[in-house]
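Final report, closing paragraph on structural work. Over the funding period we assembled a curated collection of sequence-structure pairs, and we close with a single example.
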Amino acid sequence: MAIPVTPDPARISSADSIRLGWQRTSGTTYVDQTWWAVRDRCSADTLGERLLCDAVAVLARATSRTFEGKMSVDEGLPLPDGWSLMTAKNSPFIRSAHVETPRDLRDVLGFYRAALDDRGWTEIDGAAVEPDRAVIGFTTADGPASLRLTRQDNKTIADLSLRKRMVATAGLLPKPGQSRLLLGNQTDDAADITVDELTINLPAHAGEKLAYSDHVAGELPDRQKIDLPPGKYRVTLKVGGGAAERRELEIAANETWGLLVGPDGAPLPMRLY
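Its predicted structure, as stored:
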């Protein structure tokens, strides 16, 4: 789903189109929901193209506000103004959001502290706050939570998560003290994912449903499950003949992440456990 949006000089984001995805999986005792959204530039090289972008701006802004309200109010995952990419998960095991925004880290930290305090989250003493990184723990009525912010490539990356009390199945769980990365490809083309020096080729749509539930994640082939020591990893995505997308992904001990190749090769990191 893509909707052109007129840039607003009062907002930090330079994006002018929004693509959204949503999936809901349910069983007799659980509901598992997944979202992703990417904002891109609406090409307006000519007056006619500019008028076309302007003509649908009101609808696009309304769509954006509805989506942001859904995340913030219904799911308890607030989005800072100017976000360019986000993924979110609400499963029996975790409620999480990965957000990328051009806003500086101090602004994003202030936004989350205020928004989470409004939701009754209590910040734990001992927050580690540096100019390019912040890690804060919280206590909540639903379980322990954390916020991790890093500055990377002129963007602030926010990873917000609340660990629920239910334990996942073995297919989703990392080894004790380790991290697990699951790989999937949502595109119609083959994709190469390189994690540091390891390159894995994924056929079109291989593992595209890995984020739907822990049962689906557990059925992934072993080559699409990578167990890693906790740390930061250089990740490169390349789809077909397109340009390579590069990211640095941080995974802590006992965390499981999914990395999906999204529309136009966009990397969609998602905290699953």
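Residues 1-15, 46-52 have pLDDT under 50 and may be disordered. Residues 2-163 form one domain. We thank the funder for supporting this effort.
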